[in-house]
Design a protein that fits this description.
Blueprint: H1 2-33, H2 39-43, E1 45-47, H3 78-88, H4 109-119, E2 157-164, E3 173-176, E4 182-188, E5 199-203, E6 208-214, E7 222-227, E8 232-238, E9 244-249, E10 254-260, E11 265-269, E12 275-281, H5 293-297, E13 300-305, H6 311-323
Antiparallel strand pairs: 1-2, 2-13, 3-4, 4-5, 5-6, 6-7, 7-8, 8-9, 9-10, 10-11, 11-12, 12-13
Length: 328
């Protein structure tokens, strides 16, 4: 019996050594892989670790590597989206709640919905709803349902950006992360065929991700959001009052922008009232970017986008409301 016990203990010791070696190799691979992709977009994301608390948490960017998590393939358009999603999943900064945004991986809709039903975590204190119910996708949801494939927030991440509070003019401006690093750029589109001005949303590598501007077909208040190729994906209209706007996509999804726009306290929800994104004055937060001269000269508001939501769709909608409605 003593001999058997000794043999078992030796075997357990060998197994433990192999497990430790494998873990170190996995950590090293994760650290080497973090440099791929778009640095600015990667820095704007933070992953949600198991056991997160209530609310959308703040982001810090570092400590990548051993906690890296692989992101799922996003079906059609994955080659474009992988540049962002394969790297943002490697961030290890804890967030404190998942969001309910549209699910980018249409092959795993049921799995994600079941996961969200089990969590039901509270929302930020500034949000009106008390809980995040599971997302419900449009019946025709498929691989062509994305506005900006590269800007879909990975499943275990949330996105936090600083958006300038100033009118869109002839000069481009930058959307940054909370450290002041440039992430996205907004500029006037070079489209001479358009009767009304168009604006572009581009990545740091100069790729046009989206276009937006006043609709040429409608006389009243209406804006169009187009993909980088120029095809119209969504239309934004003012609804019952100046404090509520509806964005309807060609996939039958509707987003509602409502709140105190002058105070930069806005909620973005879906048909069921589920919170997809929020904005709040950046001056209330102790962010590193606020100490930069550029940020002090040009006040910003904070945009926080939930996991699995399209940042481009939310951001372009807000820019239409925030900048292009002046004087209309």
């Amino acid at each position: 019996i003593a001999t058997v016990i000794v043999i078992v203990l030796v075997a357990l010791g060998i197994a433990s050594m192999w497990a430790s070696t494998g873990s170190k190799r996995t950590s090293a691979r994760g650290g080497r892989g973090q440099d791929a992709g778009t640095p600015g977009l990667r820095s704007a994301m933070g992953s949600i670790l198991p056991g997160g608390g209530a609310g959308f948490g703040g982001l810090g960017f570092g400590d990548m590597g051993s906690k890296a998590q692989a992101q799922p393939d996003r079906g059609a358009g994955a080659n474009r989206g992988r540049r962002l999603s394969s790297t943002t999943g490697a961030l290890s900064q804890p967030s404190t709640a998942p969001g309910p945004g549209p699910i980018p991986n249409f092959h795993q809709v049921q799995q994600v919905q079941q996961q969200q039903q089990q969590q039901q975590l509270p929302l930020p204190a500034a949000s009106t709803p008390s809980q995040l119910p599971p997302a419900v996708m449009p019946s025709n949801f498929g691989p062509d349902a994305y506005f900006c494939t590269d800007l879909v927030v990975p499943r275990n991440c949330e996105c936090v950006l600083l958006v300038p509070i100033r009118p869109i003019g002839s000069k481009p401006f930058e959307v940054t992360d909370t450290h002041g690093n440039s992430v996205l750029f907004v500029d006037v589109a070079q489209d001479h065929s358009a009767a009304k001005p168009r604006y572009t949303l581009t990545a740091g590598d100069g790729v046009t991700l989206a276009k937006f501007g006043p609709s040429e077909e409608a006389d009243g208040f209406e804006f169009v959001l187009m993909r980088g190729q120029g095809d119209v994906f969504a239309r934004l209209k003012r609804t019952d009052s100046s404090e509520r706007y509806t964005l309807a996509t060609r996939t039958d999804m509707r987003l509602y922008f409502w709140g105190a726009f002058q105070q930069r306290a806005v909620n973005i929800t879906d048909d069921e009232g589920r919170l997809l994104a929020t904005t709040e004055p950046a001056a209330e937060l102790q962010l590193a970017a606020e100490r930069a001269k550029e940020t002090k000269k040009n006040p910003h508001y904070l945009l926080r986008v939930a996991p699995l939501m399209d940042v481009g769709l939310v951001l372009c909608g807000l820019l239409c409301i925030d900048h292009l409605t002046k004087g209309r």
